[in-house]
């Protein structure tokens, strides 16, 4: 909104998003420096459902914010894939983007409750997700 960008186009993997990506990262870092909980509060604003899935947290400060505010109700899930799998999905490493905190800020310093492997084996993925969902249902 601040920069007049097309929000829907920023959600896909298009060249439109990529042309603004480094600028978006800088803007986001400025917001976080001023207020580490800025994006987290926006994500939960007005939410009233008993279970939330907050996808794409990117930094330790995000995880810490949710844990501080919601305590034991927070369950962290990391989805991983090998670099080979990621390359088959057309991922290419871009210096200054893919090694920035916005992309790898949770690679260290977080103990995840669940780690889901998504390397293309649909049955394995389904089994992992079902185990996760059943565990969460048991806690409701």
Automatic annotation (TrEMBL):
Database matches in Gene3D superfamilies: P-loop containing nucleotide triphosphate hydrolases (3.40.50.300)
Highest rank taxon of the organism: Eukaryota
Keyword Lipid biosynthesis part of the UniProt annotation: yes
One Pfam family per UniProt: P-mevalo_kinase
Keywords of the record: ATP-binding, Cholesterol biosynthesis, Cholesterol metabolism, Cytoplasm, Kinase, Lipid biosynthesis, Lipid metabolism, Nucleotide-binding, Steroid biosynthesis, Steroid metabolism, Sterol biosynthesis, Sterol metabolism, Transferase
Presence of the UniProt keyword ATP-binding in the record: yes
Top-level EC class: transferase
Biological processes annotated in GO: cholesterol biosynthetic process; isopentenyl diphosphate biosynthetic process, mevalonate pathway
InterPro entries recorded: P-loop_NTPase (IPR027417), Pmev_kin_anim (IPR005919)
EC number annotated for this UniProt entry: 2.7.4.2
Annotated pathway: Isoprenoid biosynthesis; isopentenyl diphosphate biosynthesis via mevalonate pathway; isopentenyl diphosphate from (R)-mevalonate: step 2/3
GO cellular component: cytosol
Record localization: Cytoplasm, Cytosol
Protein name listed in UniProt: Phosphomevalonate kinase
GO MF annotations, alphabetized: ATP binding; phosphomevalonate kinase activity
């Amino acid at each position: 909104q601040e920069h007049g960008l097309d929000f829907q186009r920023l959600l896909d993997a298009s060249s439109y998003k990529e042309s603004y990506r480094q600028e978006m990262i800088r803007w986001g870092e400025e917001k976080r420096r001023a207020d580490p909980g800025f994006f987290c509060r926006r994500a939960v604003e007005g939410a009233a459902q008993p279970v939330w899935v907050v996808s794409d947290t990117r930094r330790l400060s995000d995880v810490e914010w949710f844990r501080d505010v919601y305590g034991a109700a927070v369950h962290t899930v990391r989805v991983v894939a090998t670099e080979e799998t990621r390359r088959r999905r057309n991922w290419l490493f871009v210096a200054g983007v893919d090694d920035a905190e916005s992309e790898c800020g949770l690679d260290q310093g977080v103990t995840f409750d669940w780690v889901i492997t998504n390397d293309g084996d649909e049955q394995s993925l389904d089994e992992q997700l079902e185990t996760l969902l059943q565990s969460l249902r048991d806690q409701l």
